[in-house]
Structures are given as C-alpha cells and as structure tokens.
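Case study 2.
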Amino acid sequence: MAGSDQLSWIKSSIKSKYDAIVIGGGHNGLVNAAYLARAGKKVLVLERRHVLGGAACTEEIVQGFKFSVCSYVVSLLRPEIIRDLDLPRHGLEVLPLDGTFTPMPSGDYLWRVNDHGKTHREIARHSRVDAEAYDEFGKAMQAMCRFVKPILSMVPPDPHTLNPRELMKLLFVGRRFQAMSSEDKYNQVQLMTMSAIDFLDQWFETDVLKATMSASGIIGTFLGVRSPGTAYVLLHHYMGEIDGAFRAWGFARGGTGAISNAIADAAREAGVEIRTQSGISQIIVKGGKAKGVVLANGDEVYADVISSSVDPRNTFTRFIGAEHLPSDFLEEVNRFKYRGSSGKVNMALSALPDFKCMPGPGVHLRGAISISPSVEYMERAYDDAKYGNFSRRPYIDMVIPSLTDPSVAPPGKHVMSCFVQYAPYKLRPGLNWDDQKEAFGNTVVDTIAEYAPNIKDIIIEKQVVTPLDLEREWGLSEGNIFQGELSLEQLFFLRPVAGWAQYRTPIKNLYMCGSATHPGGGIMGANGRLAALEILKDIKGAA
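Prediction:
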C-alpha cells in the first residue's frame, strides 16, 4: 500500500471508530442508542431496511394510505422511556383505543368499552354472574400486574451465582411475592402455570367473553387457548397503560412508525448517527472480543461495543462464526424457540365494514374488532396450525385506525389492520408460503365477510404479510413477532439463554438488546433501556 493511501486508510478508520454500534433500527435498538448517547457515547445505528422501526413501522403501501404494517397498537411502552427521552416533544401522541367489539354468528355481539358502567351492563346482558365476576377479575389482575410490573424494569438475576447483588434481586422478587395476600399468591401461581381458558373458567361462564379474553394469551406463541402457560401471556398483554390509565391500549398518531421516529429523533438530538439501508453481514470478533461489523457492501466499521437488537439466531449463527462461541451456549441458542404463528392482512378500504349484528357506522368500529366467537372456535383454529395448515377460520384482531387518526387515509376512505392467528411458519410437507400467501389472505377476507358481508366490495387493495415475509423482510426468525416465544421456559433469567439473560454474551463487548431478551416482546422499549444501562455499567467498571 502506498504511503498516502495508507495514511488515508488510517484516517478513515479513526474517523469511523465509535463507542458503540447498534445493529438494527427497531424501537429497542433506537432506545438503546439514545440512552448510550445521552451518557456521552458516540453511537451509530445500522438499519438494513429503508425505514426505521423494525416491526414498529409505518409504510405507504397504497398511495395515500399509511399502514402500521406489523405492530399496530401500543400500550406497553415504558413510562420512564417516554419521560427520559421526552417523546411527546418529538412527536409521540397516543390516541386511546376504546374497547373490544366481538360479533357473533348468532347475530348477537359482545362489546366491552373503557366505560366501566357500560361494560358492566353489556356483560350482564349475557350473564349477571359474569358482570359481577368481571369487577373482581379486574381487581385480581391489577394485583398480579403490581407484582410483575417492577420486574419488567429490572435486569434479571443470575441464579447460578453467589454474587450478593444477584441474590438481592432474587430476594426482592421473593419479598414481593411474600407480601401478597394468600389469594393473590394463589392467582399468581395459577397464571404462571395454567392455560388462559382454564384460568378464565374459574371466573366466567359466558363463552364469547372467555374466548375474546383468552386471545391475549396466544399472541406471539404457537400455543392454543387451552395450552398451559398461556395465562401468563394474557397477563403480559394485560399490563398496558396510557397516561396512567390501566389496561389501556391505543394508536400512535401517524401509525406505529411514529413511535420509532420519535425515539429516533430523541436519539439524533443526543448525537446518535443513524444509517438506513445499511445491513451488516458479519460481526468482527478478534481474541474473544467484538471489534466492529462488516456491512453488506463490504465496508468495515469499528466500535468499542456492539449491541445487537436482532434475534439470537441472526446474531450468533448468521453474523458470527461458531468457532467464536462456546459449544454449550450455541446449543442453547439453537434450542431457543421461535415458531412464528401469526400473519397480517392490511387493507385500504373505500368505506367502512358493515357488521350484520350492528349495522352501519358507529363507535363500535373505533376499538378492536375481535373474531373470537367461542372457545371451540379458538381451539379449532389452533388445531389447523398443529397439523401444518393456516387456520381456515382464524382468530382475527381488527382495528380501523383511520377512524381515530384521519391522517393515515384519504378523506372518506379507511385503513384496516388485521392481525391473524394461526399462520404457522412451518407448513405441512408439500406446502410453502409463497404458494399459500394469496389463499391465506382470501381466507381472512372470507372469514370477515361472514360477519361484515360488504367487506369484499370495499377493498381497494390489500397487503398480506406471512411469517415467511416477517423473516425475509423484517429479519424475524421464523416470523415470530416477539423474536422468540413468550413461553415460561423462555422468560426472565431464561431469556434468551440461561446464564446469559443480563444482555451480555460470551463474546466480550457484544450485547443483546432486542425483544429476545427480558422482558420480552411488544412495543415496550425496556429491553433497549436495560441493556444500555448494563453497557454503561460495564464501561464505567472498565475505566
């Protein structure tokens, strides 16, 4: 190399050296970068796609229509992150989602809203016993949430060590459990071990009520509503709040991408450099330490710390050679379960769907619309998936955000987002998602048409997102929306690998900060924040 060329290369290398590189511009990666930069670190975020947000993105798939392509509602975003990053100043505005409307084949319906009195009267219309039990159930779930919520904001303990700090974390959890009433302890143990339906059976008798409530227990899992462990997943989704309102869900004005963009703006304000269309092909490891990354175009960028917000499979088996990892760790990574089970169908509509059980437009369309008419319906949807088929009568959670946020669709027209389960990543032999994609989308439309017959006449265009699309386009292994199932053996100090749940990895200076870490999936941001705090602690300790 000529002297001038060598000097130029050295200057370029020095210029491109960062304190930290964050792989992935999803909301957790952006939160991670923002907290590191607020601590004075020089941070670079590398995002493979053309837009930020990962699965929390907004895209104009049809001209004039803005879709929350993957994640579509918000509730779990940690209040400390909203406060620390001052996200409202950066454009974050959450609009409340009012209730859940469940149409029934009989022509009846169940419509729970945020107004307690109205919901009580509506449930009493189906069962007076359930109306009274609903109040008691809400109180019990609040007690469960009070127990679990602090755990969402703590770094998981390592039960393998005798480190006093780790033992204190375990003691903290134990003391909180001990302080609960006997009834609440009993409920908590049940939530951690029972199926959603078995748990709900203890409270309610109305089939449609149990079916709709149980739906929260299967999201992000390849489990049925009668599968043990789904009661905890129900609790995970029950913990949401907006502006202090318990169990509240909402839309971000402008789509879920607006959440990611607000975090990105806060990160840039703190000094973070963000590059889109900058995927990586390799994490550079030398002497057991992460040194930098190789971009897809072959460029190398170096940093003292590498923080990966992508899932373990991509991080450890795609970006790093097996020779750099302990064999037992790699075995555990390979055992980590993804088993994606859901898809999305997004529609641009010329008018509103007209439901037979409640004809015409109305406030019942402003909340979630749940196709979950019975427990048997939900379990049969799972039966299809168990044998490698997408559900012929799927559970569908629909929202029409344009009714609350007109900015996402042209005047008089609407956007409808349909979350669909089950759509198993692994189809039975002889089937593949490229061939089944259109049939899956048509099945979703046909199912909706049973309740709202005009749906086929008002679709301008639809976008079908399969688990394979989630893997290919968004880098979610096997299409799992939470970067790994929220099953009991993959939670807390077991997520993603026992002994490595504190955001560190066997490779020095390489960290994990995505949804595959504690406390799991959803638009929460806690993973990115907690990982950043651990990174800063290590940097301070090494100084």
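The domain at 3-59+70-92+253-337+483-542 is CATH 3.50.50.60 (FAD/NAD(P)-binding domain).
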